[in-house]
Amino acid sequence: MNGSAQGEFGPLVLVNPCELLIRPEPLQRLQAEGLRGLKGCRTALRFRKKNPPELLEIELLPRGDVHPDCMPERPPPSCPKCEQSSRDRPEEPILDAATLPQDLDLFRLAGFSSMLIATERFVEAVRRLGYAQDIAFRELPVR
Are 103 and 37 in contact (CB under 8 A)? Predict the structure, then answer.
C-alpha cells in the first residue's frame, strides 16, 4: 500500500474496507500467540507529521469459498468466450468447510476478495490483547 495518510491509527486498522494495517509490535504479539500465517508487508504511506507511525499491511491470501447453499442461482455467462459470470456476494454468507484453510487464521475468500475471514482463535486473541477497538467481527456459519 502506498500513498498519503493522515489521522490517528490504532494497533490494528481496517481501511478501504478490505485492507488491514497493523503496527509492528501488535503483529509480533499476535504471532507470539501462535496465530498461523500472519505476515506484515511494509507500506509506503506518507504522513505530514513528525514521528509518523510505522504501519504494515497484513498479507491476506485468497483461500476458501462460500457454501453453494447460500448462493443465488448463477446468471448466464457474461463472457461467451471464457464462460465466466459474475457472482453477487450472498446476503447471508455460509462458509464452505471443505474449502477453508487449516494453516491460516486470517485470509480473504477466493471468490469474494472483499470478505476478510478470521478464525475464532484470531478474534479471541485480538480482543484479549485489546486490538479490536477499530474493528467489528461478525460470526459466520460453516457447512
Answer: yes
